[in-house]
Sequence to fold (181 residues):
Amino acid sequence: MSAFTGNIVLCGFMGCGKPSVGKRLAKEMDRPFVDLDQYIEKQQGMTVREIFNHRGEEGFRELEAQAVRDIAAQGGMVVACGGGTVLFERNVQAFREAGSVILLLDVPLPLLHARLKNDTRRPLLQVEDRDAVIDRLYRQRIGLYRRAADVRVKSTLPPWVMARRIAAMAEGWGETPPKMA
Fold:
C-alpha cells in the first residue's frame, strides 16, 4: 500500500489546537507545515486583525479562499485552517478536489472556554461577553465542521499525543483519503 500524499487539513473551532497539533504532526510525518492565517498574513503584509479592520470579514474570506486554492494545489503538507475556513463550501471543495483529508479536532465546549479565556488575538472574541460569543459561534459552526470533516478526532489530550495518534492513523490511509460514512 502506498503512503497518502495529499494534504492533511486540520479544522475545528478556535482554540482546538490546530497549529499546536499541526506543527507536531508535520514533524512526526516529515511534512511541511502551513498555518493558513500566517500564510495570509505573510502574503498581505498585515495581521488577520488588520485585514479584518481594513477589508472586513468578507475581504478576509476572499483572501482566505485564494490561499486555500494555492495551498490545496501543492499537496503533501499539514495545514492548520483558521476557525472559519471550512465553513465555506468553496474551501472544502478546493481541498477535496486536490485529494486532501480534512480532519476535525473536536474539543468539548467547556475546554474551549478555558483555552480561550484570555485570548487577545482573535478579532471575533474582542467583545465584552466573550463566553456568549463562543457559545453562539460554537453552536453555529460545530455541525459545519463535522460535515466538512473526512475524519473526526476527539481532541482533549496534549498536542504531541494527538499528533502521534493522527500520524499512526494516517499510515493506514494509502493513496485514497478516508471519507466519513
About this structure: The chain has a mean pLDDT of 90. Helices lie at 18-29, 36-44, 48-72, 89-97, 109-116, 130-148, 159-171.
